Every structure is written in structure tokens, then in C-alpha cells.
Amino acid sequence: MIPIPINDNIRRRIFWAATLVLILANVLAFIFELSQGAQLNRLIYTFAIIPARYTSPRGSALPGLGGLLVPVFASMFLHAGWLHLIGNMLFLFVFGRSVEDRYGHWKFILIYFLSGFVAALTHIFYNAGSRLPTIGASGAIAGILGAYIVCFPGARISTLIWVLVFFWRVEIPALIILGYWFLIQFIAASAQQLDIQSAARGGTAWWAHVGGFFAGAVLALIFRPRRPKVEIIPPY
Q1: Which of 15, 74, 126, 221 lies at a 20 to 30 A Cα distance from 212?
Q2: Which of 158, 155, 174, 75 is nearest to 116 (CA)?
């Protein structure tokens, strides 16, 4: 059973321009990846987060402090395939629009990138010494999910439930669907940490998701919202 969120019931007052720009930037970056051909591995190696670069004396593949900071943010726009990209952009679309409406464009962007930064640091901390590259916007988007659950715990998320070849559309409280999402990330991160061989093989950066989620929730509590009052569209 796979839950696929497709919309929420929050009444928004402003157009979600920053969310749209981030989605377009990620799509364009992925198209650029596809155009690289044989040079794609070099691109990924240069701009992905590789924990060993931050924990070993040899340092970054790029010169100077920028060589350590650039991959933290550049990696947020790189993806490992169409499914990776579509899944991330779907979550950004569903949850990002309402968070942007709540805080305004610029604070929303700050939440996004600061959460991605904390997610990267969390991943590096729990995978110190790893030379496996990590890419994707998941950590930053996890921050948006953390901000969403703080702002809209009573919202209802229109969700497609996929079982084999069948789909059902149901409305699930945000607290439940995002709480379930976070629980899965935490359990998977803990299991991966205990399984050293699994961590060495790589895979999903679970701890990055956990760190990004917490960062977004904290930032949502710190930042003053543009629109404190939440309007929920009543069900039909």
C-alpha cells in the first residue's frame, strides 16, 4: 500500500511563485543532467555531498571554502532518476504551496534552503568517512514537511492509495500522513545506522530527511508568519 498525496484543503491567498520556481529549477537541472552523457558521473562526483570530503584531511574536490559549501546547495538540484525527481517535486507541490502562503516567498525560501543545509550536515555527521555521493532535494523538502505539520496539523491531505493496480482517493489528516512519513524515515535511518554494510552500500539518506524535518519544524516556530490565520476549505 503506497499513499500518494495530491492536494490539501488549505485556502491560499497568494500565488505559490517560489514553489513553482524551485520545481522548474529542479526539472531544468535534471534535463541538464540528461544532456551530460558520459560526463554525468563527473558532474555528480563534483557537486554531490560526499561526507569524506568534510571529515578527511584531503577535503573537497573543489578549491577553497566554496568547494565545501557549493555541493551542499548544488546537490539539492540533482536527482538520480525520473522517479526520484517526480516524487520530490510532488511533495514540494502539495505541501510547499501552503507553507509559502503562510510565510511569504522569502521566508519560505529560507526555510527550504536552511532545512536542506541542516539535512546535509546531519547526513555528513551520521555517515562520516563515506565516499558515496548523495544528491536530491529530499532534505530541503523534508524541512517543508516539518514546517507544514507545525502550521497545519489539522489540515486534510487528499491522498491516492495505491494497492497493486487499484487506486483509492481518501482524505487523511496531515498529522497522520506526515507523522507516518517521519516515523518511516526515523526507523529506516536507525536500521541503516545499525547495519554497517547497508550504510556502506549507500541508498536513501534517511538521516538527512530526519534532520531536515526537524530543522523545518523549528524554523516554522521561529519565523513570524505572514498570515497567522489558517483557512480550511470545508469538505464537499
Answers
A1: 15
A2: 75
